[in-house]
Design a protein that fits this description.
Distance between the termini: 107 Å
Structural class: mainly alpha
Largest sheet: none
Shape: globular
Helix content: 55-70%
Strand content: under 5%
Number of strands: 0
Radius of gyration: 28 Å
Length: about 300
């Protein structure tokens, strides 16, 4: 006897719902768009979890790019410590541009020699910037791949990972650092073949010749740099507000104020020495001053007024 179930529609009624055609959809969880340094900012990430997110779990391209960005910033911090000490702390202690220049010329060979400068300054800076840009492009590529955006026209409408405030400060800092390095390092090498004679007196001379432009430029460089360094360091160390549980809103808010207060303190200390002492040191006379005038005149666009 045949006991197979009957296909009688009276026993198994066919309805519109049972035959409805469904669009295919992915069964995995979509990629969340990063909000803060390529990680969600609205989610609680404890310090240990944040460290895991920086590479202890997977070993894809993002793993290596994130580590390059992280450890290159640690290396560059060594140079930054020397630089802030020479251009701010020592001028505050000595209250003299000439005396501070002596210490600057003594310590500068440690980070401006042909051997150390590429490894302490140039390469870490290029690695930090390059890995950050590459990481954004990789995240965007992953989003396009996940959602099936195959051609250029489709990818033009893809909303990539949002830029965090820390990253935005970094992009703003890039032209400021480039201009500073060009005037104080590249220009003397280009014109005179050597930058050993360029120190704090050269900066003071620039303030005396073009005070408004110098004040605006150095103020922007110091302020943007201080906020980027403090918040970037807090991110790598797991000390940002998002590392605190969302149900501890007061602690999160206090951490936000603490990091901004620390940023303001670093910027204030830096400005006090760089602008308050070096910026008010006055012009240099004699043949040295004439040499400074010649160097400043080579600056594109603004050099004719200096």
């Amino acid at each position: 006897m045949d006991h197979r179930p009957s296909l009688n529609t009276d026993e198994y009624p066919v309805s519109v719902i049972s035959l409805r055609e469904l669009e295919p959809s992915p069964i995995d969880t979509p990629v969340e768009e990063p909000k803060d340094d390529y990680f969600p900012s609205d989610a609680y990430i404890p310090p240990r979890a944040a460290a895991s997110a920086l590479g202890l779990g997977g070993h894809d391209i993002a793993y290596y790019l994130t580590r390059i960005q992280k450890y290159s910033s640690y290396t560059f911090t060594l140079f930054l410590g020397f630089h802030i000490t020479n251009t701010s702390v020592l001028p505050l202690l000595t209250r003299s541009v000439a005396n501070s220049d002596t210490y600057l010329l003594l310590t500068r060979p440690f980070y401006q020699s042909p051997l150390t400068e590429p490894f302490v300054v140039a390469l870490p800076l290029l690695a930090h910037i390059g890995s950050g840009v590459a990481l954004r492009l990789y995240r965007r590529h992953q989003l396009a791949k996940r959602y099936g955006y195959e051609n250029h026209e489709q990818r033009r409408h893809l909303r990539g990972p949002s830029v965090s405030r820390t990253s935005l400060l970094g992009y703003t800092l890039l032209p400021l650092v480039t201009g500073h390095a060009f005037v104080n390092r590249v220009l003397p090498l280009w014109v005179e073949g050597d930058s050993s004679g360029v120190g704090l007196g050269f900066v003071s001379h620039g303030f005396a010749k073009q005070g408004v432009l110098s004040f605006v430029g150095y103020s922007a460089l110091i302020a943007v740099g201080a906020w980027h360094f403090v918040w970037g360091g807090a991110h790598w160390l797991g000390l940002t507000p998002r590392s605190i549980s969302a149900d501890r809103a007061e602690v999160r808010e206090r951490r936000w104020y603490e990091l901004n207060a620390l940023s303001a303190g670093v910027a204030g200390l830096w400005m006090a020495g760089a602008l308050g002492v070096v910026g008010r040191g006055g012009a240099t006379g004699g043949w040295v001053g004439r040499g400074y005038d010649e160097l400043y005149s080579w600056i594109p666009v603004v050099g004719r007024w200096m």
